[in-house]
Every structure is written in C-alpha cells, then in structure tokens.
Design a protein that fits this description.
Blueprint (H helix, E strand, L loop, with lengths): L27 E5 L4 H12 L3 E6 L6 H7 L3 E4 L12 E4 L8 H8 L4 E2 L1 H10 L3 E6 L4 H14 L5 E8 L4 E4 L5 E6 L3 E3 L2 E4 L8 E4 L13 H12 L7 E5 L3 H4 L8 E5 L8 E9 L2 E8 L2 E8 L4 H16 L4 H9 L9 E6 L2 E6 L4 H14 L4 E6 L12 H5 L7 E5 L15 H10 L3 E5 L1 H12 L4 E6 L7 H12 L1
Parallel strand pairs: 1-2, 1-4, 2-3, 4-5, 6-9, 6-12, 7-9, 12-13, 13-14, 19-23, 20-21, 20-23, 21-22
Antiparallel strand pairs: 7-8, 10-11, 15-16, 16-17, 18-19
Helix pairs in contact: 1-4, 5-8, 5-9, 13-14
C-alpha cells in the first residue's frame, strides 16, 4: 500500500493529530462537508447519540439539507475559518478536503481535535460491538442495507451506516442498542492525512466481499495496487471471525489465501459452494429460490429485487446472518420484506407509457448488471439507457472498452459528455465518441450531448410508449429524471 508521502499534497504537511478524548469527554462535533451522503449520515448518528452537531458544505441541497434541518443541525453554506467559531470539541474532516482546504487547514494549524469519517464511526459507534463489514467493488450498498434490514426485522436492533437511503423506514443509519454494528466498507481513501482505505478502520468481526474489479483509477495506480487493499482487509479479520466470499468472482476467491479467519463461499456458479440458490424463478415482482447451505435446502425465499447481482447479495446476507445465529424464518422474513434502497432501479414515475428509472451505477460492470436486471424486470419493454460518467474514476480512458460493451440489453443509449476538470489528464480522459461508435456497431441507437438539458430533447424524441428510460449517475444528473417526466407529461 502507498503511504501519504506518495501523494502530491503530502509535502504540505504530515503531522501528529491531537488525541481524541473518550466519547464522554466530547459534547460538540463539527463536520466539514456535512451534506455528503456519508457525512450527513454520520451527523445523524452523532445527533441521535446526543451530541451537539453542526457543519459546513460548499452548497446545501435536498434531500440531505432537508434531513439535517429537520434534526435542527445548523449548516454553514460555504467554507470559512470563522465557521469553526466557537470551537467544537471534535472536527470530522471529509475525504474531499485537501490539505489547503480553508477549514481543514485552520483545524490543523489550530491543533483542534479531528478525525476522519471512518475513524469516528469506529471510535464512537462500533467500539467493542460485533462489527459486520460489507465491502467490494459492486453491490456493497444494497448488501449492507439488506443485512441491516434482516437484523432489524429479527429484533436485533443493530447500529448501522450505509451509503444510501433504505426504502424501509427512509433511513441510512441508526445508533442501535444491539450487539452488532453493520457498516458499508468503502475502499476509497480515508482523508488527506490518511491514505488507507476506509474499510481498514472498521475492525471487522466478520465481513462480506461481494466483488473485486479495478476501480478508483484516481486513487489506485494498478489492479495490483487495488488487489493489495482487499488482501490487507481480508487479513485483518480475527481467527474467530468469518470472511464471506463471492466464489463467482476469481479475484474474491483468492482472498481466502490472505485470511486467518474462517471463510465461507457463496455464489451461483461452480461446485463446492457453501451457500447457493437453486430452483430460481424470476418475475416482475422479484425472485424466488431455495436457499441451499452445505448441500441442504433450508427453505424457499422470496427476494423482491431483480437481477442476478441482487440474488448474490441475498446469499451473502444469509451467510452472515446464519453465522450470527439468526434462524431461517427470520432471514426469510427480512429478505422478503426488503424494499430496496433509493437510487437503485428506483421508479421515479411513468408518463406517456414510459417508465423513468433512477440508478446509481457508474462503473462498467455495475452499468451492465443494472441494464440486465432492468431487462429481466420488464422483458417486453425496450430499455433506453442514459448514462453520466461523472466520478473521477468513471471518466477514465481505461473504462472505454467496458462501457462500450455494458449496454448490450439496451435498444438505445445516450451518454452525457463529461466536462474536463482541473484534475483530469488528457491522455487518461475517456473519449465518448469511441464509446458511442462501438455501441452503434452493435446495432443500438447511440448518441451523446453535454449535460442533462442538451440530452433532454434527444430523449424526448427517441422515447416511445412502452419504453423504460433507465437513467444512471452517481450524482443528481441535472434533475434529468423530473425534467423528462415533465416533458413526457406534456405529450400525454
């Protein structure tokens, strides 16, 4: 793994941060970048635990701004050193902050007590509880949410933190009073002062690894670098813990060699799986399957989500839940009542016979799985896929080939042309024209435009009654979903 000295900003300052006092000594907390999905959820955790919470962000926007306001959490719009007055007992520095960020620099130079998000989660909320960590390139948000929901319906009252909003209860976190804390383990770096992956802070008792495929090209220099991060995580589990591995993924299987803990495999392909599904029936309302563990069928389950990837997620959850002592009846009830999470194949509306879906997919493999799941859910409808390569990693040339082959189940594809940012390099930047040409060669309609407003007329012209408009982005995509629904409403 790379040290902080290997990064461009490292020369600005490496420092020893003040010791974080015990939780009982902290009364007030300030979060820099409070409107981010993870930071906003952490603010909610601190608020629910009884701390005085406030923070700042470059801009405030719904729904997070509304959630924070409902909790009475004060948010400064815009960054300034004066926002830190009066001084809080603890400052949480978001990983979007650079060493020269005005508030982060003030905190450092003033030697205020500070932590990163994962450090704070581990210090204040995991503590000595049983830490169940879900990680992997794809599927970790849905899997973490499903795991938390299963434990909640079983009456275990776990604490949890996920990177999305669950439709069950409209929540993304809970302090909980039970023995477990369930957390989504991200492989992205922790903070400008800590280049470890976030998941290295969560002290897992047991864990799930859903997939390992090169991602975050802005952080990891190669597949070997990326692979090393997951190997370090796998080796961090204690001997008594359980590492649950998706055996359908060769990169995940090899992690068994790094573990000192017990290991368990799940999947749908190949022999000798510890947990698998048989007699699978798919329909518009999800999937029904027999859960087979160690060669014996434990029961028939219903998962109200479409797609092979979601079935794999359910098998991973069942693996951990059984090991933690949940009964098959409790697992069946939890999986069968899971309503999914927002921005994962979420129906935003239907107008003029066109269903408009919202999804968070932003990696070629996730895009492919989402398009496939959508086509399984609506086999008689044409899929019109709309994609915004927005993240630092998704805009990279290394993913051109992946995107060119990700839309095979779509009848038409529209890409938003990403703007060239200050941290982009021309030689690494994705050529949208190359991707569009490859898609056209496969026989699908394909086009591109700059941003939501320029894509809107192209979509309105292409979409027909009976289509599904699948809109994918890890951002707001210029509110394209609502704009499109409004245009279609005028047609009807």
């Amino acid at each position: 793994m790379r040290s902080l000295e290997d990064f461009p900003d490292a020369h600005l300052r490496i420092f020893e941060r003040p010791r974080v006092p015990d939780a009982s000594e902290i009364q007030s907390v300030y979060l820099i970048g409070i409107c981010g999905t993870g930071m906003g959820a952490l603010a909610g955790l601190f608020h629910d635990a009884g701390y005085e919470v406030r923070g700042s962000d470059s801009a405030t926007w719904p729904p997070m701004s509304e959630r924070l306001d409902a909790m009475g959490i004060a948010v400064n719009e815009g960054y300034s050193a004066s926002n830190l007055q009066p001084e809080a007992d603890l400052v949480i520095v978001g990983n979007a902050c650079t060493p020269t960020h005005v508030e982060a620099a003030f905190v450092r130079e003033s030697e205020l007590v500070q932590q990163s998000l994962p450090e704070a989660v581990a210090h204040f909320f995991i503590g000595d509880r049983r830490s169940l960590v879900v990680t992997g390139t794809h599927g970790k948000t849905t899997t973490t949410s499903l795991l938390a929901h299963v434990f909640r319906t079983a009456g275990k009252d776990p604490g949890f933190l996920v990177g999305g909003v669950m439709n069950n209860g409209d929540v993304s976190y809970a302090v909980g009073t039970g023995d477990h804390f369930i957390v989504e383990g991200d492989e992205y770096d922790t903070a400008y002062f800590d280049k470890q992956p976030k998941f290295m802070h969560y002290r897992p008792t047991s864990a799930i690894v859903t997939s390992v495929e090169f991602d975050h090209a802005d952080i990891y220099s190669s597949m070997e670098d990326y692979r090393e991060a997951f190997s370090a995580f796998a080796s961090s589990l204690p001997e008594s813990g359980l590492l649950v591995l998706c055996a359908d993924d060769p990169e995940v299987r090899r992690l068994a060699g790094a573990a000192i803990s017990r290991t368990s495999t799940y999947g749908l392909d190949g022999p000798d799986l510890d947990v698998t599904a048989v007699r699978i029936n798919t329909g518009s309302d999800g999937q029904r399957f027999d859960l087979m563990v160690d060669g014996s069928v434990l029961g028939r389950l219903w998962l109200p989500l479409s797609g092979r990837h979601n079935l794999l997620n359910a098998l991973a959850v069942a693996s951990i839940a059984l090991d933690e002592g949940l009964r098959i009846e409790e697992i069946r009830e939890g999986i069968g009542s899971f309503l999914g999470i927002q921005r994962r194949q979420q129906i935003r509306g239907e107008e003029a016979g066109v269903i408009v879906l919202d999804d968070f997919a932003h990696h070629p493999t996730a895009v492919k799985a989402t398009v496939q799941a959508t086509s399984e859910r609506w086999p008689d409808r044409r899929i019109v896929a709309v994609f915004e390569p927005r993240s630092n990693s998704s805009r990279r040339k290394v993913f051109e080939e992946g995107y060119a082959t990700s839309f095979g189940q779509a009848g038409a594809v529209f890409l938003s042309r990403p703007p060239f940012r200050h941290n982009d390099r021309k030689e690494d930047f994705m050529d949208v024209d190359v991707v569009i040409q490859r898609i056209r060669e496969s026989g699908a309609v394909a086009d591109s435009a700059e941003g939501a407003d320029n894509l809107l007329p192209l979509l309105e012209s292409e979409l027909q009654a009976g289509d599904v408009a699948l809109i994918m982005s890890n951002g707001g995509f210029g509110n394209l979903h609502e704009k499109l629904l409004a245009e279609l409403s005028e047609r009807s």
